[in-house]
Amino acid sequence: MSSVLTIRGGVPLTGRVTVRGAKNLVPKAMVAALLGNEPSVLRNVPEIKDVEVVTSLLQLHGVTVEKDPVTGDLTLDPTNAKTASHTAIDAHAGDSRIPILLCGPLIHAIGEAFIPDLGGCKIGDRPIDFHLDVLRQFGAVVEKRPGGIHISAPQGLKGSKISLPYPSVGATEQVLLSATRAEGITELAGAATEPEIVDLIAVLQKMGAIISVQTDRTIRIEGVQDLGGYNHRALSDRNESASWASAALVTRGDIFVQGATQRDMMTFLNTYRKVGGGMDIGDDGIRFYHRGGKLNPLVLETDVHPGFMTDWQQPLIVALTQAEGVSIVHETVYENRFGFTDALIRMGANIQVHRECLGSVPCRFGQRNFLHSAVISGPTQLTGTNIDVPDLRGGFSHLIAALAATGTSRVTGIDIINRGYERFTEKLAGLGADFDISAAE
Ligand code: EPZ
Question: What's the whole-model pTM score?
Fold first, then answer.
């Protein structure tokens, strides 16, 4: 049953939230357990939809997944892995993109994989061409079938020299999950090096993999015959932490984010400080707060790590609607990630989106009709309105805009936010937000 939030704005969010394992690592570490010949234990696992989707997909393939009722830790046992029916896989894949990462581990475990046509947030075309090219370079046979693709490797996967046309996180994970047990050496040039990638490498190293990250963004993997299990505590979710930080600015509040990790958020923290946000960086978390003065506009470009994460820009843009002056955001990772600004404009924000690259970072979207640069003028008074959440990060941005607006907002489609924000309504209530939850008619 989908829910509706009725939010009464104008209340500063104050208090403490706990952020647990990263949505963009935990499902991948779960898939990695398939590569082992013994059980693995994953700790610091959040209760989010993406974890549920991967749990049911793994169980479908014969992996037992036990969840500790107290800690939420997962024990994954891949020893009875088996094929699953295509219709069952499709039914369980939901709107996640994770199934594409099952290819390598399933080929190693059972010799084949069927991947249903993928979902994921509507922030661009979300192609998987890099993934399929990489699998073919490992020697896999990729066949389009009704409803998805079938991948097999009669002679097993062979190490290969691969170069990515773009430092894709997913394609890098595809290589890591395929190469660790492939025969021979794999060299991946142009790899993504996000903290979640490094944490996945740590998981694989615990299993017995031999992986090194070179200084020039090349990752080298020496294939091994067998891998064992792992016992790993997932790194915390820097995207959720950054979202709460922006929420503190937008609502003129003060939020301590337990679990926020400075090491993974350095670029965000610099930007937060330049906007005028206050922060106290501790060992077990970071306090983010509005300092009472004005917020500063800025020119911002998203990029791959260690640049400013594309997942951080949506909540921060809501804060920029309150900054005094004109800000520019050039989104260079996804071609269509400003759809969420429509609702902000209806609430009174002054935002124009443009086709031009308004920045110096080389971008694949210039002159291709993608509205991937935004100009934000502030400060503007936001007024409550009816909102239907478009995607995960845009949806969180709508929530914090409604919390800052004067008047009441009716927000539908909020279930998509459960994909990446653990118990977010409880956290909002704990921070003093004034809202009701009701079942959608
Ligand atoms: C991961 O998506 C994250 N999702 C995204 O987080 C994150 O924004 C993104 O990495 C970039 O950091 C998960 O980890 C589940 P990509 P992914 O492959 O792997 C293009 C969130 O809100 N591309 O690095 O799908 C692609 O279209 C989500 O938490 C191809 O062209 O991202 C995009 O323009 C959103 N062909 C660019 O590369 C391919 O085969 C970056 O995508 C693959 C990607």
Answer: 0.96
